[in-house]
Design a protein that fits this description.
Blueprint: H1 9-31, H2 37-60, H3 63-69, H4 74-97, H5 101-122, H6 129-148, H7 154-172, H8 177-201, H9 213-237, H10 242-248, H11 251-263, H12 270-302
Helix pairs in contact: 1-9, 1-11, 2-4, 2-8, 2-9, 4-7, 4-8, 5-6, 5-7, 5-11, 5-12, 6-12, 10-12
Length: about 300
């Protein structure tokens, strides 16, 4: 019997770094609190587009673009996914700087389970008893928070829905992760650049001297911080089991929750804790079931 292959340590570390980087992003966007949220999003689009497309063209010329858009439906699907991710970014950055970090973390805790629901409804995937139990328990947590949160958690649900639909569109679009990100960014680049130029010429921007070199540099680096975790995720997902990725994806919202409570002092009373506990139990059931089924599938292959 041949032993099961060892985990790719580099892939594991790259995945962990990507999720940690996503997890600490609230601290970064908080440094940009003086900049209007919408302009942060526009800068994020512009600088990440320059970085991603510049890197792709340096490595492959324009061949990557021709290969991607030659596939059926890719062009318009990526236009939809680009719009969804731009909405997600905008809402997330606004929520962080408006003092709703805990609620944003709730959205990204809900997202994996929403992906399961989308798979059942739109891709006709089937769930086993453990997965239905996980979805049901997490749904109870969301309902509890809805009625006991103090206000309807629309930020969390909108973040989960927009990122869930983004992932669904990217799943059915037959294109690799990095070229797909490049094409999405290209669709958004000119509108974002136009809005930035309009803001600067109408006295609503401050990139050219108004905000200072420190904030300008942070805005530019924000483009790299947008692209690098996505590139790292694309690298890691090809090298380590997807069940491991599934377990590691909860690093980011856990860190966001801790930052919201410990660093920004957001309230986290018993009412919120009860709802989160239900969601965590659902996630634990879902993750353990996925890991167990992955091990069972791997055993005959290793024999």
């Amino acid at each position: 019997m041949t032993p099961a292959p060892a985990l790719d340590r580099r892939g594991l570390w790259v995945a962990a770094a990507s999720f940690v980087l996503w997890g600490v992003m609230p601290l970064y966007w908080h440094l940009l609190k003086a900049v209007p949220s919408l302009q942060i999003v526009f800068h994020r689009i512009v600088w990440s587009t320059i970085l991603v497309i510049g890197w792709l063209c340096l490595k492959q010329g324009l061949q990557w673009w021709r290969q991607a858009v030659s596939k059926p439906r890719v062009a318009w699907l990526l236009a939809i996914s680009g719009t969804l991710i731009a909405f997600n970014w905008g809402l997330y950055i606004w929520a962080v700087n408006a003092g709703h970090v805990v609620e944003t973390s709730l959205g990204y805790f809900i997202n994996p389970l929403l992906n399961v629901v989308l798979g059942v409804l739109l891709l006709r995937e089937r769930l086993n008893a453990a997965q239905w139990t996980a979805v049901g328990v997490a749904a109870l947590g969301v309902l509890w928070l809805t009625f006991n949160y103090g206000s309807f958690p629309w930020i969390a649900l909108a973040l989960a829905a927009s990122f869930g639909l983004y992932g669904f569109v990217r799943k059915i679009a037959a294109v690799d992760s990095i070229p797909g990100l490049g094409i999405e960014s290209a669709y958004l680049f000119l509108p974002a650049l136009g809005m930035l130029l309009w803001s600067e010429t109408h006295g609503q921007g401050g990139f050219f001297g108004g905000w200072g070199l420190g904030l300008d540099a942070l805005l530019i680096v924000g483009g790299a911080l947008t692209a690098l975790p996505l590139i790292g995720f694309a690298y890691a997902v090809r090298r380590i089991p997807y069940s491991v990725i599934g377990l590691m994806q909860y690093i980011a919202p856990t860190m966001q929750l801790l930052i919201g409570v410990l660093a920004f002092g957001e309230p986290f009373g018993s009412d919120r804790a009860i709802g989160f506990v239900f969601i965590w139990i659902g996630l634990a059931v879902f993750a353990i079931d996925g890991f167990w089924r992955s091990r069972r599938r791997a055993a005959p292959a290793a024999a």
